[in-house]
Amino acid sequence: MSRKPLASLQSNRSNTQRQQQQQPVSLARRLLFPSLPNNDLPLLLVCPVPPELNTELYDFIALALRAFVNPWWTKITRYDKEFLPDITRILTVVVRALEERVLATDFSSVICRDIPVILTQHYIDYRNASSKVATAYAAGGALSIDQLFHQFQPHMALSPDGQIDRVYVRQILDHILRVCLPPEDFEPEAERLIVREILLKIVVKDVIPKIVQPWFIQKTILDLLGPQSRSAGSIVSPESPPSSQSGQVFSFHTILIVFLSAIQSISGACLALIHTYKQAVNTIKLVNQSPPKSFHPSSSHSSLKSTPSSSPVLPETNLSSSLSRAPSESSSTSSLAKAPLFPSDHPALPFVPTNQNEHHHEYYAHGPILVISEIFSMHERYASSVIITTISMLASFFTSFLDRLLPYLLDNMLSPALLLSIVRIGKRTLFPNGYPAPPPVDPTPEEQAEIHAKLLAWRGTGGLSYLTPILLGSDPSVALKSAIDPLTSTSCNVHLIMMILDRVIIALFPELGGAGPGEVLI
Questions:
Q1: What Pfam families does the record point to (predicted)?
Q2: Predicted TM-score of the model (pTM)
Q3: I need a labelling partner for 276 at 20 to 30 A (CA). Which of 42, 88, 230, 509 fits?
């Protein structure tokens, strides 16, 4: 009697072990955590995230290490199985350090206030530079538009032809590694230099030269805009019914179908309006319940390690006031580029102590309205000028509400679901079959011209196609060309990317701008 339960227990154990052996072991489990007793991967992020995001992040890391580290490491030794797990341990520490800084950063101010100001100033300086080409301001026509633009926005890391100074980027990467890496991994110079040069190559040689190409920016804009609508001249009229049917009188059945279709369309529109109204009311309630944003550094940022004596100082200024001067003056970034590389040799930029009892309105809606008005030159046309002025007046009237609404929408947009989608898209793009995809071929000049022509011919879809002539004038192609031209110079685009990159880095690492705990740069 006692042997049967023992035999059944042993059979159950063997079935469980067999089922566990039959379950496929993930790539991350085999490469990154070979000593784990089960298939459950440890958490990569500190904040609670969906399990599928944790799995996708580890899968992406495993694919990257297998593609870019394993090939040359196996040539050195084929028996060391601890190298990739050790890299994973270091990456986990770095990712968590960056996660802490991202959560402590107010990206609402960066995205809604600073980046629109940088974009607006880029358009102003480019148009000023283009107006001075072949004039006495351009040394009698000897200076190109890239050189003139560099005079408006000189940057310590850029040459007039848009070449990036690697020393500048190395200093920034050194500070990021110092802050994020554990001391035992940062102190070995060989390990630190290898990691730094790999990151330097990715940023300076792979990423920035690609995204500053005019065709790449134009293609990205087309992808974001979606499919184009047919122009008025290319609209295909529906085929006319045969002559035998055109003379037929409408029957009662036809009239009934038209009547019921109209009722269905009206009811569908009413249901959509009701749903939109309920969603808007719910959003307004949530926004009103959310606390107002104030421009103060987070307490977690104040507690982060700051090493100003060995950190490069990035250009920083009060970007909100950079547009208050005359357009003919050089931009705010012209004085920023003269900032010292090391604060030990020169005094740091001025800062103002933060008053914790005083709330400063961010005016988040002002920056996006300003950049849209400048990009499309809306004040040069009467109808668009009236529309943008009315929108500005309404935004000023609802300033307190918009200062709550825009950060609320941004927080909902920057969610774990968005990060999961980005990781999956990146994995499918970089590793379509589990291995690196061949590098994409740049489009030919004819294909680039076709991309440019498609962007000029864009008129929107739906109701937007009827508003396009009102907003952009009788010939929208002229306004679209004026909006695209400031992004057609690779050298000027490098200036724009570096300005935005500087602002994002300072947001994540405020000590690079010379600010101490509880202090804000102006």
A1: PXA
A2: 0.74
A3: 230
